[in-house]
Amino acid sequence: MIGNPETRRLYRDLFLSADGIENYLNGVILFDETVYEKNNTGINFVDLLKQKGILPGIKVDAGTIDLINFPGAVITQGLDGLAIRLEKYHEMGLTFAKWRAVISISETLPTFEAIQANAFLLAQYAAICQSQGIVPMVEPEVLLNGNHNIEKAEEVTTATLTELFRQLKAYRVDLKALILKTSMVVPGDQSDQEITKEDIAKSTVRCLLNSVPAEVAGVVFLSGGQTPNQATVNLDQIAKLEPLPWPITFSYARAIQHEAMEVWQGKSENVEKAREIFIKRLKLDTKADQGLL
Predict the structure, then answer these.
(1) What is the pLDDT of residues 44-97, one digit of tens each?
(2) Is 181 a catalytic residue?
(3) Is 148 in the same domain as 71?
(4) Residue 3 pLDDT
(5) Total structural domains in the chain?
(6) Is 139 a catalytic residue?
(7) Can you tell me the distance from the alpha carbon of 50 to that of 22, in angstroms, rounded to the nearest whole number?
(8) Omega of the bond prior to 245 within 30 degrees of 0, cis?
């Protein structure tokens, strides 16, 4: 997280107060800190988004902790008191939530137990969300870190999503009111495997078709450490394989913010230029979402 509270508020204002973002974004995931903050003109960020016609969402997990007896594996915490927190967020006008699980790939990971434990927690979170009138976004991120090839990435991502939806169905979560936020299938960032954007798109779509039920409301892709250009190009290639059983789109953070952040550097005189770059990337990703690049 960036700097002190005021620096973080300015960082959020840089993006959320930019003119025209409603033309490219229909939802924004906030942190608990953000829902109480105001922009530079005194408007609460939640209210600002609603004025723009953008749905405000909230990250509700409390980060990861070690999974005991499984070295290197983690689970996500945050279920304690979740229903009470969601009730408050619902009253504040937030409409959806996000919970991130982390799946690593190595010579010993992931174990089935690690996948199962994270899928169970995601299912419990999703059920609690729906009980409070909040749409759950489930995010089982298969990390990019490692030297694994794309075949291994597809195997792990397919296994992760298959177990996730088994648990969601077991705990009677309504898949028609749930969003999947998933990794694209890419080789590890230390792999020397040569692949094309077509390989990534085909592997990703095959993985989803083999593991995600058709009734799921939508699939959004995280950038997961890809560069802004990689995330844009790969999304475009996936979109070129539509129609698919579910609508797809992007749910990027770093991949749409990184270039603007490099220009901004926390300086007020750089705000407008940074916003121009931000909007330019949003335009590219919106075109990519339609397979039009």
Answers:
(1) 999 999 999 999 999 999 999 999 999 999 999 999 999 999 999 999 999 999
(2) yes
(3) yes
(4) 79
(5) 2
(6) yes
(7) 10
(8) no
